[in-house]
């Protein structure tokens, strides 16, 4: 389960993808497959969510990991490097960025 709390000891990664409406569903399918078959099974994975904007030109991916090294190890694996090459063909750009929760409300 995703946890958004400023006192949570975990690593948050937000990745944004830019694409055309014509490739949005293909990219979403590739991301769902990556999470179902590989990412969710990696050490340190906690949870993730995929969000699509109304125009289908952006996908935001929010994921959480026990440690930043867990995320980095997954990203550097042969499996994920191959998947990212395919994902890159479906979008204009994508950028994973690690964040700390500065403050949470609610």
Automatic annotation (TrEMBL):
ABM domain spans which residues? 11-101
UniProt-recorded name of the protein:
Antibiotic biosynthesis monooxygenase
Keywords attached to this Swiss-Prot or TrEMBL record, sorted alphabetically, are: Monooxygenase, Oxidoreductase
Q: Matching PROSITE patterns, A to Z?
A: ABM (PS51725)
Q: Does the keyword Cytoplasm apply?
A: no
What GO MF terms are annotated?
Answer: monooxygenase activity
